[in-house]
Structures are given as C-alpha cells and as structure tokens.
Write a structure and sequence with these properties.
This protein has 341 residues and is an alpha/beta fold. The chain is built from twelve helices and 15 strands. The chain binds zinc ion (ZN) (2 copies).
C-alpha cells in the first residue's frame, strides 16, 4: 500500500510499504480523506518538535479489518479515529490537562493518516477515540472533525466574561473554523486579520466578519478604533507567524485574553513581558483536543451548524501528496484534503 513518511533528510515521500498487522483490540481503517494541517507543514519544515514526526492526523475512513476482541465496530463502518487518546486517570487528566497526559502522544495512527490504510491501536479503540460517522456526513467534511475539535478546546479555555469583540489573527483553515464558532458564543461580528485577499474572502463567509488587511493598515490601531479605543476582548492567534503574535498582543484590550492556537514558528517571542502584567493580559495556550471535543465537533458538522465544504480548495490524491505541500503553503489555498483511493 502507499503511505507517506519523512525521509532521513526530513522531506516528505509517498512510498510502498507493508499494510500494518493488527494486534488484539486494533482496527485497520482504509483512509478516505485526511486534511493537511498546518502542524504537518511545521513538522516537515522541522520547527514543530512537540510530537514524533508522524504526519496526517485529520483522517477518516472505513473499517477494513477488526482485531480480536474489538466490540462495537464492524468491517465497513465509516469512522473517525482520533490519533491521540489520554488515560483519563492520571494527574494531568484529572487536573483538566488531558492533552498533556503522558499517554496522549504515546499513541498515534500507524503509520499515520496519509496512508491507504492505517492501524488504530487498541489503546485508541478502548479509550473511546473512534467515532462512528453519521451516514450523511461526507468523508471530506468529516476530515474537519479533528481541527474543529481543537478550535472548540481553544474556545473553552477562554473566559468569556464581558466579551463583545473577538479578533482572529490568521484566516487560514483554523482561523476560518474559529470565526464560524464565534456566533455560538454570541459574537456575530468578529474581526479577522489576514494578509491574503482570497483567505479573507473565504474565511469571512457565512457571517458578518469584519476583515482587516495587515499589509495595508495597522491592525492594533484599527481594532482600537472599532472598539471605543479599548482593543479586542479576546484574540485568537490562528497563525504561527511571529507578526501574528505581535499583532495579537497589541490588539487585545487591557484585561483581555490572547488565546494561542497556531503553533508559533521557531523565532516567535513574547516581547515586553512587563506590559502583559501592567495591562493584565491573560495568555491561554491550547493544544490539540480529546474525544469530548471531537464528538461535539462531529455533531456541529453533521447538523450543518459549522459549514466546511467551501473551505476545501484542493482535493489531492494520496500519491500526489508531496506536490500538495507547497500548494498548502500558498496564500490562495485554504484547506487541502488528501483523498484515497
Ligand atoms: Zn491538525
Ligand atoms: Zn492521563
């Protein structure tokens, strides 16, 4: 079967590998769609080191083989398998940090989501990481379950007291999903800062989003002029670019919250830490998601509360994945979904 992996030099290659062998309790899933995530690109450029370099984690597909002792799944089931599952029992899990559980990142899809078939380990199956997809939810849309779940977790980590204005910095797929979740928090007119005109247009659809172009105006000044001089109550960084973090920190109001969602690029710094204290700005980091959020994300997609079909600008067959990487980095690209067969 075909599967993507990283070469020793760190470049992406799609090659012929053995179909993974199941152990008791595992599932084998034939991939139908797998989104290409910004964190996959970060892993390829060598800047994201928080996890082993397994790429492809926004995968959905069809159960092809059921390991011994598995209950609740049968061949032919359409599923979303989460790539990481916590233990739900350790200090981190009990303390509200399940994505920091030592077990969480120890388990992943084998060999990764960008493969014709992949093994879902018994840990993930037993831990509730596999969801049955609703019949009417198309595979390419279901591939948004994981990124949407990450956005839901970021939303939940913010305190929403007295929130009238939210700014999303970065209008790529994550920024677009955050914007589409904000009406659910009573924010019908969020602000977006994004340099690409195409991304501003796509991300801003389906809501009264006020889009700002950071290449032609000073975003913090503009945000203040739109908020009686205060700044945004809540700012999400949905970009790893150092300028996104700087604009976020300068656009938040005194006492407001900056939620870090995109993986900051290597050179990113938090400048003027004293200003955070004197302005009482809260920084909240959010990383990944668990089955609580994936189930909610699947329901939002199934109900049509969050529309994602228009975010898919490219569908790329698995064998052409290497070509999709430069494509995904282009300003006029929104979401690249890799499909198989
Ligand atoms: Zn992702
Ligand atoms: Zn745990």
């Amino acid at each position: 079967m075909l599967a993507a992996g990283l070469s020793r030099e760190g470049t992406l290659e799609v090659k012929d590998v053995e179909v993974p062998r199941l152990r008791g309790g595992d599932l084998l899933v034939d991939m139908r769609a797998c989104g290409l995530c910004g964190s996959d690109l970060e892993k390829l450029s060598g800047e994201y080191t928080a996890a082993p370099p397994v790429i492809g984690h926004e995968a959905v597909g069809v159960v092809a083989e059921v390991g011994d002792g598995v209950e609740g799944f049968a061949e032919g089931d359409r599923v979303f398998p989460h790539h990481h599952v916590p233990c739900n029992d350790c200090h981190y899990c009990r303390g509200g940090s399940p994505t920091m559980c030592p077990e969480y990142r120890a388990h992943h899809l084998d060999p990764g989501g960008f493969a014709e078939s992949f093994r879902v380990s018994s840990w993930i199956v037993r831990g509730g990481g596999v969801l049955l997809l609703p019949d009417n939810l198309a595979f390419d849309q279901a591939s948004f379950i994981e990124p949407l779940a990450c956005c839901l977790r970021a939303m939940d980590r913010v305190s929403w007291q007295e929130t009238e204005t939210a700014l999303v910095v970065g209008g790529g797929p994550m920024g677009a999903l955050l914007l589409r979740l904000l009406p659910g928090r009573g924010l019908d007119q969020p602000l977006l800062s994004e340099p690409s005109a195409v991304r501003r247009e796509i991300a801003g659809r389906g809501g009264a989003v006020q889009s700002l172009d950071p290449t032609s105006l000073d975003v913090p000044d503009e945000v203040r002029s739109l908020t009686d001089g205060r700044g945004a109550d809540v700012v999400f960084t949905a970009s790893g670019h150092p300028a996104a973090l700087e604009d976020a920190l300068s656009s938040v109001r005194p006492g407001g919250t900056v939620a870090l969602v995109g993986i900051p690029e290597g050179a990113s710094q938090i400048p003027e830490a004293a200003r955070l204290v004197t302005r009482e700005v809260s920084l909240v980091a959010s990383n990944a998601a668990t089955d609580t959020e994936t189930a909610r994300a699947m329901a939002l997609l199934d109900e049509g509360t969050v529309e994602v079909a228009d975010l898919i600008t490219h569908r790329v067959p698995l064998r052409d994945l290497a070509e999709a990487v430069p494509l995904a980095a282009r300003a006029e690209t929104m979401k690249v979904v890799v499909v198989s067969p």
